[in-house]
Amino acid sequence: EALFREGREAADAGNHRVACEKFHESHRLDPAPGTMLNIADCEEKQGHLASAWTFYRAVLQKLPPSDERSTLAKARAQALEPRLPKLTVRLAPNAPRDSRVLRDGVELKSASLDTALPVDPGKHLIEVSAPGHAPRVYEFSLDEGEHRTREVAPGKALDGSSGTVGGDATAD
């Protein structure tokens, strides 16, 4: 409760970074839909559109449709949808089958590849590795509402054998 109140005070003062920190910690200690709604609001005000959208959608899962906060969360999530940047990560056809893909430090398993996933606007890193290959890092930015597909692969084979996947890290 103390963290929630401090989060509200920070949000009311326009300090959304501190508000989000307080709300996230409050939610970690005592998960509640109202806290999630406040997290969504302060994430949105910081420009973290996908994070906000995710929290608004989570509120909808926690509250009954008759709750007025549910109506608010639904409207805010719907308003964000056209603004969401979406990124499709595709493993290159010549990439080793056991390639590991991380987007901003989060592993993307095969089910996440080739799917347009919402991300926050701004800079992103994709790291690709595979046994016997040099790792490769892709760095780029996405703007609000932008949709992009990135084909990725690890770097060259370390043993110099055939079937290498060549190239250096790229940036857009």
What does this structure look like?
There is one protein chain. With 172 residues, the protein is α/β, with parallel strands linked by helices. Helix content is 38%, strand content 22%. It has helices at 2-12, 16-29, 33-45, 49-62, 68-80; strands at 86-91, 100-103, 106-108, 117-118, 122-129, 136-142, 147-152, 170-171. Strands 3-2-5-6-8 form a five-stranded mixed beta sheet, with no helix packed on it. A three-stranded mixed beta sheet has the order 4-1-7, with no helix packed on it. A hairpin with a 6-residue loop joins strand 5 (122-129) and strand 6 (136-142). The longest helix has 14 residues, at 16-29.
Rg over CA atoms: 20 Å
Judged by helices, strands and strand pairing, the structural class is alpha/beta
Helix-strand sequence = HHHHHEEEEEEEE
The proportion of strand residues reads 15-25%
Strand count, sense and barrel status of the largest sheet are: 5 strands, mixed
Q: Quote the distance from N terminus to C terminus.
A: 44 Å
Using DSSP, what is the number of strands? 8
Strand sequence of the main sheet, in spatial order? Answer: 3-2-5-6-8
